[in-house]
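Quick start: what a row looks like.
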Amino acid sequence: MPTLALSTIVRDAALSLPACLESVRGIVDEMVIADTGSTDETIEIALGFRAQVIPVAWTDDFAAARNKALAPVKSDWVLILDADEQLDPSAAQHICALIGDESMAAYQVPIRSYVSSLEDRIWDRAAKPNDSEFPPAKNYPAYVEHKNIRLFRHLPEIFFVGRVHERIDPQFLEAGLNLGQAPFCIHHFGLVSNAETRARKNHFYRRLGRAKLRETPQDAQAYLELGVVELDDFGNLDEALALFVRACELNPRMGVAWLFRGITLSKLRRLRDALRCLSEAERQGHLTSLVYEAQGDAHYHLKEYPRACKNYDRAVQRNSGNPLLQSKLGLAIVRAGNIERGLGLIRQAVECKPAAGELHDRLILSLVWLDRIEEAGAAAEAKLKAAEHTDAVDFLRAASLWARLKNWPRAAAVLQVGLQRHPNDITLGRSLSEVARTADVPDSATAEQSSGSERQKLSGFRR
């Protein structure tokens, strides 16, 4: 029976490494962990799992570190995981058969990267509603999935390339080796880490991306990679655009570069230029939901609502079941004049994923635009009850809608609950005092008695 090794590189991963290693316990025959300079308990944790820990000097080169982590492996096959990843439990029933197939050299494994919003994306892949039953992942609203070679034969001619965004698949393609598809996934939690960790990683990847660009100044992929970092992680639109333009010049057939060039131009409100680039991405065969969503966004901002509907509909067809796209389509349909159908689509999206605040926002926006203020106020309160995350501005908006109808007790009740959630928010306090002066509603704790049924309606708000 072929043997299997886990190979990974780590640094200061004490918080996430135990779950990672536990997920492969009983599946792998050996664990080889390359430590690049941990100062926490990472090494002790790895040794506790009987892993072989090797020190590796960090040289700002992921491929070099991964190749050093491969070198001591004695097993026939290798499984690659990062410390912030976990192998799905279903892998245990499949791996023996996969590595026992003598005709296969490697397998692409789906990687689910969990994100905090349906509006998130990773590169050119849109988020999907999270349907995972894996306990550590169940509470995240969405994930983005891509495939990568993570399970492969341990062969001397197979190694990683690339200082950052390192890859091993070029070696398999050049050698003409057979690739299969794994029937299980890897769960990735790195994108839902705390803000400080994400910011540190962003600067780290930017530095490595710039170094890679200096080494390979004629590589369109290097310009694309750094451009995505500047766009998504730093909001540096002008620099991102210049990088995407250069990528398109070096490789005019790179559809994904045209896509990001178009997205950046849209953010710069150069909407006609954006549409030309997005059409070129489509012409180069990049027929993803994100291309059509970006085209829909541009047409929507140009107030070309029928065209926006057409593009959003194409995006929905390629990413069915995505309530974010359905809500965008519904909003465009409302603006195009088919009001009840559009509102119906947005409401369906909200019902599908009630914890996603951005879906509620589109319903509220539509109702306000239609001057259906009472319905908008009720929708704003529904968001406060159901959404996973609410800010002070959400309470202010709901209260302002009731204030427009001169429903002062209900406005006061919303503001009071908002102050319970955000006691240090000055604007909420001032707004409550204003409402109290206008309608002679007490702004002290005694307001709970005077608000009566309005307070009861808000009693179900998630704490």
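That is the whole record. Residues 178 and 447 are 71 Å apart (CA to CA). The chain is about 50% helix and 15% strand.
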